[in-house]
Amino acid sequence: MSTKKRESTGFLIKQRAFLKLYLITNIENGRWYGMKLLDELRKEFKPMGFEPQHPEIYRALHELLEDGILKRGKIKKDGSKYQEIAVYYIRDAEKASAYKKLIKYDIDRSYRMIRKALEDNFS
């Protein structure tokens, strides 16, 4: 998905776009390696019945890498002489910010649709 223009289906926000938003924000806040990101998102959303899967997290990370929003590096794992873990950093803060603004539009629209459905069908 390109950061230039996100095509909307006119319905609710797509899962991958939602995950990419949270990945960017978590990386901005210092949670920068894949398994930690997965653990944080699972913990955050489990009470709501959503448990992101490992492949979806990594697909979203790879798309963000391809879009030039993130960069990937490697560091030595604590206590290990040779074992390395992949870490992610914001490569382009402007692109990250622009992507988040695009997704905010979809979230706002999705929120209005869900609120309408609740009001129309359950009030």
From TrEMBL:
Gene Ontology molecular-function annotations: DNA binding
Pfam families: RTP (PF02334)
Swiss-Prot/TrEMBL keywords: DNA-binding
Keyword hit for Nucleus: no
InterPro entries named among the record's database cross-references: RTP, WH-like_DNA-bd_sf, WH_DNA-bd_sf
Keyword hit for Electron transport: no
Function: Plays a role in DNA replication and termination (fork arrest mechanism). Two dimers of rtp bind to the two inverted repeat regions (IRI and IRII) present in the termination site. The binding of each dimer is centered on an 8 bp direct repeat.
Protein name in the entry: Replication termination protein
